[in-house]
Amino acid sequence: MKKLTRNRDDKWVGGVCGGIATYTGVDANLIRLIVAVATLLGAGSLIVAYLVAWVLIPGQPETVSAEATDVPSPTTVSEPAPPSH
After folding, report:
1. Is the sign of the CA dihedral 20, 22, 25, 30 positive or negative?
2. Distances (CA, A) of 59 to 7, 53, 56
3. Which of 7, 23, 71, 79 is most buried, taking the most CB atoms under 10 A from its CB?
4. How far apart (Å, rounded) are the C-alpha atoms in residues 15 and 60?
5. Count of alpha carbons within 13 angstroms of residue 44, beta-carbon side
6. Residue 7 to residue 57: CA distance in whole angstroms
7. What is the pLDDT of residue 33?
8. pLDDT at position 76 over 80
């Protein structure tokens, strides 16, 4: 099930337009253009709606890295043991 969240990666101000774009599958720049034009035509009343959406729409959860910090990387080569005499 889809969930509307503010986008952490595709954002200019608060990630609201990026989140709406991700949710609807529409390009984020098109959403931003629609919001900008509607704000200008509505004498700025959409700014209040954007701020309310910024507060009410939860942020996208942070992704947890799958890398472990205590595991050596595969590129680490161990030194051979010195020859015994």
Report:
1. positive
2. 7, 11, 9
3. 7
4. 9
5. 0
6. 10
7. 92
8. no
Q: What is the pLDDT of residue 50?
A: 84
Tokens of 81: 């043991």
Do residues 23 and 53 lie in contact, with contact meaning Cβ atoms separated by under 8 Å?
no
Alpha helices by DSSP H, listed for the chain, are 16-24, 28-41, 45-56
Domain positions in the chain are 1-59
Which residues, in sequence order, are bridge partners of residue 59?
Answer: 6
**What pLDDT is recorded for position 70?**
56
Q: What is the DSSP letter of 6?
A: B
